[in-house]
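Today's session is about reading a structure prediction critically. Students often jump straight to the picture, but the first step is always the sequence itself: look for stretches that repeat, for charged clusters, for runs of hydrophobic residues. Only then move on to the predicted structure, which in these notes is written as discrete structure tokens rather than atom positions. Here is the chain we will use throughout the hour.
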Amino acid sequence: MEPPINPALPADAAAPSVQARTARARAVAAFIAFAAGTLALIKLPAAAGLGPGTLFAAACTTAAVGLILRQKPSAIALLIAITLLGGANAAWRINHRSPDSVAAQLELAQTSPHTAVFVEIEGIVTRPPERSRPTRGSLSTVLPDFFLRGDRFGYDLAVRLAHTRGGPQPASGVARVSVEPGPGAGPPAVNAGDRVRVRGFARPVTAPSNPGQRDFRSAARERGDRFWLDTGNGATTAVIDHPTAGSRARGLVAAALAWPRQRASAAIDRATDDDDAGELVRGLILGERDYGAPGLGSAFQRIGLAHLLSVSGFHVAVMAFIALLFIRATGDRGPLEPLIVAAAIAVYMLVVPVRAPILRAGFTVLVLLIFDAMGRRHDRLALLAWIAVAVVALRPTDLLTIGFQLSFGLVAWLLIIAEPRPDRLTLRATEDSATVALWRLPLRWLRTAAFAAAACWSVSIPLIIYHTGAVAPLAVVATVLTVPLIVLTMWLGVAVLIAAAAAGPLADALAPVLALPAGACAALVRAIDSLPLATIRLPEVSLAWTIAATAAAAYAWRRGRLRSLPMWAVLLGSAAWLAVEARTAAPLDADTELRVTMLDVGNGTCIVLERGRDALLWDAGAFGESVGVRTIPDAARAIGAPRIRAAVITHANLDHFMGLLDLARPLGLETVITGESFARAADRDPAGPAALTLARLGRAGVEHRIVAAGDTIALADAELRVLHPPAGFVPRAENDASLVAVLEPIAGGPRLLLTGDIQDEAIARLLESGIDLTADILELPHHGSARESAAELVRRVDPRVVLQSTGPSRLADPRWDPLRAGRTWLVTARDGAVRAEIARDSTITAGPIR
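Below is the predicted structure for this chain, in token form.
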């Protein structure tokens, strides 16, 4: 029989007592009840209509009843009270808004999701200007000169007044102020604590405009009722005097809190010039992520290490261990040790920007350390559950994030598997540390690390698949290889922060040393990410499978043995269930013949065509550089088309292929189809975007196919027939070289006409060609540019549904009004992503996805 020894955790760990199990059950039940109330308020419209006062009164009444009752009825009543309390807290944090909320007034003033309203507001700077680090796509990385632009800066402003025609009015909310001072210019001349008056165009946080995007509206209201304010070059910003003693005091507090963060950020910036190394250090030390060239963060996520790049309990535990070593160097401090370490962690939380992962991790470690210092015996799993309740109470929307779920879930799992059980799957026993040879200690550490990594990885896989649709088979190996470099980087990063606070030149001297392990770790992650099958993409899975598969993995570790038939039956059953879901997850139902989804990418184009189990991408562009990093892959998975093997790029303008390089890998792209003009653009400029795109796709094994009028493109059992341009056609303008194609279903039902960016020359050729251009669904040419030739094309096509991909500039052009009547006219700038479906009986339904 295999001995019940877990080499990943202390050998003297004791099983929980009866009292500990009781306390654990109560705490976990309280968390489940509180979380259920929070989720109900967030997700159920009926619950959202209840006010916090009503829910709180109901909670108090139910709790009073529970105190009167005894035993099981009392417990049930108290759990119901906790559930109602969770709903009341969420209602207060999310739905309760001040009458003078600027964000609420902006929502009322908006006519479309992209509408910005000119405002003049006054408030106190709470977070100093920081250089914005947006996610960038591959093209902007390999062609930095082509995308040359000035730095953009952002800072937070706690609003106090709004200047209106009637004079200054009290106002509330938090503005994220964006400033683009121009090439070579520095950050705006404002500091934390300043009272400033700014003018610019403001937008509220709106509903997601594309499938797969997260809805941040609740989080924005929860965190101060936030909104966006763009001040252009910042010329309309003025620092003014504090009008009252209270305002001056708030400014001093904001300045005091921001000072250590500014020093820390500046030290890290000086320490790391390399993009990857800088992103790694900023993620590990300052909790920043998801910025830079198409990011190291994306590589970490693909190979299953995303949790290592954002501050979590692991990172704060390393910080605590560093502080403990410094304390132990001065002697044994007994019960003071955890208190001193807690103080050090509190200082660290003041230094770094308080983001959700830092708040969760720091709060968890602080509470555990304080209870240790008190000398009380407590069950850590029960304590963790109460900490989770406190975090949800403070930020209810965190409950829905994968970060929260993995942070608390994996810490709880590690605490569970630390408890010795005779009926648990384990590795074989190893020698005691006191007797094992020194040279064998690294091997033992490797076994321990592999055990812990495998246990966490296997239990977290279902949740990761549910949220991201990806699984990383090499995650355990990657964890074991990268953690030593990450810990070393954190040690040196803390040293840089201390040196920055004490003496700036010392921090500069340490900078090259810090860059070495950070750069090595980044290079290792990039290398693992480049391996075949480093990431496997899966379609969306059900919540039921996620829960069942997580329970199955936990059962295997806690109850199973290598020769246990029940364990293998449970695991194989979970795998079979996943295979069935993946196989039966058809993007279209049996009654739908064709689905056309036009994504909201501003003044760009991206259309997904789906027929049966096949999908085709028609253009993949936008002026936003990151459209292929997240927007298109996330939307494809959300609509049920996680793999798209072919993409058609109509012409060589960036707003039609900006995201192609970034999405080729996540979508499994095999073929890129273009017209002759795209190939000519690549030949004319071998260092330009078109040439680099084709070269990189070729190295990735993606086939390039050129088509012209008369050629066909397969989509399941139907074909897209190319109508324009003919072979050898050289247009006066690149837009007129756009591919035009018609999709005619086999049954002879409704037709779809796709037009790209064609203008006068191409439209004239099509109208004169005698080709049957009638279609039921039309992609409006050139994003809806209101030319007479385009209007004549719409009259000739006579569509029932018009799909217009555009930004707000062409949202409501009155020149189209005569042709809008009697048609379904969908515009992405107003409606977000839109969809048209053709049913088997030839009926057409169309509307916004939102």
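Discussion point for the tutorial: Residues 1-13, 422-434 have pLDDT under 50 and may be disordered.
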